[in-house]
Amino acid sequence: SGQTNPTIFTPTTQDYQKVYDAIAKKLIDEDDYDDGSYGPVLVRLGWHSSGTYDKLTNTGGSNGATMRFAPEGDHGANAGLKAARDFLEPVKKQFPWITHSDLWTLGATCAIQEMGGPDIAWRPGRSDRDVAYCTPDGRLPDASKGSDHLRGIFYRMGFNDQEIVALSGAHALGRCHTDRSGFEGPWTFSPITMTNDYFKLLLDEEWDYRNWNGPRQFQDNKTKTLMMLPTDVVLIKDEGFRPHVDRYANDQEEFFKEFSDVIMTLFELGVPFESGKEARNVFKRTE
Ligand code: CCH
Which residues are catalytic? Predict the structure, then answer.
């Protein structure tokens, strides 16, 4: 029936849905990690594998999964992401036909949906590359810096101010760890549920410097349990970013829509897809 070589397996959307389901099941089963989910660290893995993209040289991005190798895996920005890569390894064993680079972005997509975020369209087509394709250190943002640095990093990927703010809303999820980045604490009270609370809290709380021995970070004046990075607070101080923080704080649906678009774009940066946009698919979530 049109098949030329029966030993070559061409996965269908249903096959990728099976991978999605296996990741989702592991997320439910392995709930004794961090705040109760590997979801946030999976999102960070998808982001750090993609956020190395440089549009001028068309290098970096999720194609390649070069974080598997030193030196990239050892870049300071990637500290702690071994937890996410190890979490996905049994899924790779179960579905050996999927590439690591497809698996990492699919893992992040699954995590966002399973944590109550928006639908994210995803398509396969990434291939794994060898160590020679590792990106140089310094392509990911430095949390201690200001708006010029943020723009420098994200404009290099091809994003604009609105997209920078939308992407930053991922900090509704997860936390900082002293043994990874040096920073400490979660951004929101519900770090394993995707909401627009990051934007609401940025606007509604008073953010003071935390008095501690660690790197400069902010804490909420009321409960002193939440944190913001210097690069987070930049979003309410900078007049190019601020209007989008206001919009997203006021309307979670608007945030979800724009976040969904921009994270799909992020995960596709630099990938030489053979398929067109019609190959994008939204996977069914776990009930
Ligand atoms: Fe982030 N992020 N991120 N971030 N990030 C950290 C954790 C998460 C910056 C710095 C940090 C994005 C943008 C930025 C997540 C998603 C995204 C940490 C703590 C630092 C530091 C790491 C640790 O100690 O474990 C900076 C600077 C920027 C600049 O824009 C974007 C974009 C995304 C996704 C779209 C997620 C999720 C986490 C939580 C990880 C976890 O383990 O809980």
Answer: 48, 187
Binning pLDDT at 50, 70 and 90, where does residue 3 land? low
User: pTM, whole model, 2 decimals?
Assistant: 0.97
Q: What CATH architecture is 147-259?
A: Orthogonal Bundle (1.10)
Q: Whose CA is nearest to atom 1 of ligand 1?
A: 171
Ligand 1, closest atom to CA 174?
Answer: 43
Which numbered atom of ligand 1 lies nearest the CA of 41? 42
Alpha helices (H) in 72-196, listed in sequence order = 82-94, 100-114, 147-157, 161-168
Q: Is the pLDDT of residue 70 over 50?
A: yes
Between CA 29 and CA 236 the distance in angstroms is 38
* pLDDT for 1: 47
Q: What would the DSSP string read from start to end of 236-261?
A: HHSTTTHHHHHHHHH-HHHHHHHHHH
Rounded distance, CA 231 to CA 147, Å?
7
Q: Which residue CA neighbors atom 27 of ligand 1 most closely?
A: 143
CATH architecture of 13-139+263-279: Orthogonal Bundle (1.10)
Ligand 1 centroid to residue 261 C-alpha, Å: 19
Same fold, 13-139+263-279 and 147-259: no
Q: How far is the CA of 219 from the centre of ligand 1 (A)?
A: 16
Dist. CA 107–CA 105, nearest whole Å: 5
Q: Which residues line ligand 1 (CB under 6 A)?
A: 40-41, 43-44, 47, 80, 141, 143, 150, 167-168, 170-171, 173-177, 180-181, 183, 229, 231, 263
pLDDT in tens, 217-228: 999 999 999 999
Of the CA atoms within 13 Å of residue 53, those in its CB half-sphere come to 23
Alpha-carbon gap, residue 166 to 35, rounded angstroms: 23
Domain ranges, ordered by start, for the chain = 13-139+263-279, 147-259
Pair 137, 71: CB distance under 8 Å: yes
